Amino acid sequence: MPAFDFMTVVTFAAQIISASVVALLLFGFQRQYRKSYLKHWTAGWTALAVYHLASFAGLVLSSQYGASAVDPRRITAAVLAAVAGYAQIGWFLFAPYELVRRRPIRMIAARRILAGLVVFSLITTVLFLDRSSFSITRNVARVGVHAFLGGIGFLIASIALWRARKRSTGIGFTVLSTAYFFYALEQLQYAFLTVSWAVAGEIPRYLNALGYADFLLQSVLAVGVIACLLEDEREAAELAGAEIEHLAYHDALTGLPNRPLFIDRLIVSIAQSQRSGHKIAVMFVDLDRLKDVNDSLGHSVGDQLIKIAAERVRRCVREGDTVARFGGDEFTLLVPKIDSIEDAAKIANKILETVKIPMIVNDRELVATASIGVSIYPNDGLDAETLVRNADTAMYRAKDSGRDNYHLYAPAMNARALERLALENMLRKAISNDELVLHYQPLIDTNSRSMIGTEALVRWNHPELGLLSPAHFISVAEISGLIIPIGDWIIDTAMRQLKAWHRRVGPELRMSINLSARQFQQQDLVEQIRAALNRHGLPAPSIELEITESNAMQNAENTIRTLRELKNLGVRIAMDDFGTGYSSLNYLKRFPIDTLKLDQSFVQGVLTDSSDAAIVSAVISMAHSLDLEVVAEGVETEEQLAFLHKQRCDRIQGFYFSAPLASEDMERFLVARNAAAM
Questions:
Q1: Would you say 85 and 152 are in contact if contact means Cβ atoms under 8 Å apart?
Q2: Are 544 and 511 a contacting pair, CB within 8 Å?
Q3: Which CATH number fits domain 6-244: 1.20.1070.10, 1.10.10.10, 3.90.550.10, 3.30.70.560?
Q4: What is the dihedral of CA 113, 119, 120, 123, to 10 degrees?
Q5: Which H or E element spans position 462?
Q6: For 105, which DSSP code?
Q7: Which residues face 280 on adjacent strands?
Q8: What's this model's pTM, rounded to 2 decimal places?
Q9: Fold classified for 422-677
Q10: 434-451 per-position pLDDT tens digit
Q11: pLDDT tens per residue across span 171-207
């Protein structure tokens, strides 16, 4: 019969109570902090309390019933102690694993490991439990195997925690690693003593002392767990604070500094330059026509393009320079300590050349360009707000000059910016006040000299400045987005006028209508044209839609798709200003167009410039070989007309026949011209 004295009761009671208290304490922490590793430790200490309780119950039963052969309570206690003991090992190893790896253990793997440990505990219980009589040797061997495996596992956990302590500034990992180490030694020592007990057949004298040591080490282990928890929470708070600070001062898409951080750095740089006397360059970079990409290919493609462009701009500057994203497709650069304005110009040129390198986005090749405005401290401003505003003004000047270039700020730009803003406000009122009017320029058949159609051209009947041509306001309309309602008005008004002429003059007349770049990128453009044709009861072939060559080539694949949809409606398609853009013959044969319009810059030089004459002749010949009609714009003299007639140009448009006319004047011209041609 095993020894069973008062000190043994005290030892077991201390172990059971301490494990239960720690389990309750950790359960409370887990409810508050929601850490998964606390669940494992809570379960582990609960299992440890059950293990000690079952072991104590088994000892009591063995003392009471001695060598009772088949006492079910003793067997139940032994099984419960074995299952709880091995489950405790598993949970005590899961928690350090999550702390070291910084991620939760997969539940499927955890369940499988626990199931394996439970099965192993049952096997050892069956193997070492003597049913015929109470055997000290077998019972001690079962406990020794459990202690040995636990010691090895805790030793491995101790090493892992010790290695992980370097990433932490606190002592939590150190305390926990040390506690695990001594707990592992205590378990291995216990395994060694059980072997000695089984061999010698008597209880070692200091076995109860190990029970007290076990109680102490459990307490130290609990302190280490709590220290790790507090340290983990502190680090999480620091990381969260750093993340919040990063998000507050950096752009989420590109990771670049945002507007507030850029302004702060610019203010600091100005203060430093006041002492050192160095110049500062502030650049405002805007990607050209990004809205067209978003409208045609989607915002996800636009975001990828912005990220690529941001990285390219960042690589163009030095380590100490700042590249920030102001929002949308706008970036700002702070280049401190430049020696001359030429240095800023070189950086701007480098950015322009780098940005326009073709980008691959979703297996699609895209080409982007940028417009850059540059202001210099102290020449163009003495404070951050003024420098940024002036760089922005210079950027818009670069856009007005054709995009894909840079401009240095000049004081006169502010006046132009204010003028442009005032013009935009007046243009908004012009739309609502019906100040826009359409004039029409005739399209003349070269052979018969009869009028076969007109081109609708918008004018602004300004109440103070008089009749304004598109050159005065179309660029402002494009930048502000007013070109969309203006374009819709032009389509509706031109078709209504054509329907009236069909009734009064003849149904064979055509109408050419220009589409702006923004109009052409609208998703519902085809539906708008279809609705307008139905609304005015016009046959589709009587409408010819014109798109410039440069706009068509911005996104060639999207252009082909849209043009085909328009062709399916039955309308005619013309490519305007041919020869001034990309002039890609590869795409020209793929575009479903009906007409090429020769730009007037070539037509006006056919008599004085042999190169222009050769180009015009070649384009007409090429167009006819592709079954395309050719319209020559800007014809002003009889000699130009004779040259074009000789080259078999199909239609003529220009001041030689008529300037653009108001609708009433154009109707009289139409009747008179056709009457003369009969």
A1: no
A2: yes
A3: 1.20.1070.10
A4: 180
A5: strand 451-462
A6: P
A7: 336, 377
A8: 0.49
A9: TIM Barrel (3.20.20)
A10: 899 999 999 998 888 888
A11: 777 888 888 888 888 788 777 777 666 555 555 555 5
